[in-house]
Amino acid sequence: xxxxxxxxxxxxxxxxxxxxxxxxxxxxxxxxxxxxxxxxxxxxxxxxxxxxxxxxxxxxxxxxxxxxxxxxxxxxxxxxx
Length: 81
Fold this sequence. Notes:
Blueprint: H1 11-24, H2 28-48, H3 52-57, H4 68-80
């Protein structure tokens, strides 16, 4: 069953989305549906490979700016000082 969904977006984003849809020969609605289908598939496939506790924690640090060097420094500080 298909239902209608209203999104409120900036005019410039709407124009870009419509242009992209025309270029791809699809609709903005289909692009949004494809996006959420893709995200759902990625999350379910990546979480299925992890133990339950790890899967529940996956993704909680996405918005941080932690680099490998920061982690190495943390380990040095913790174990070598």
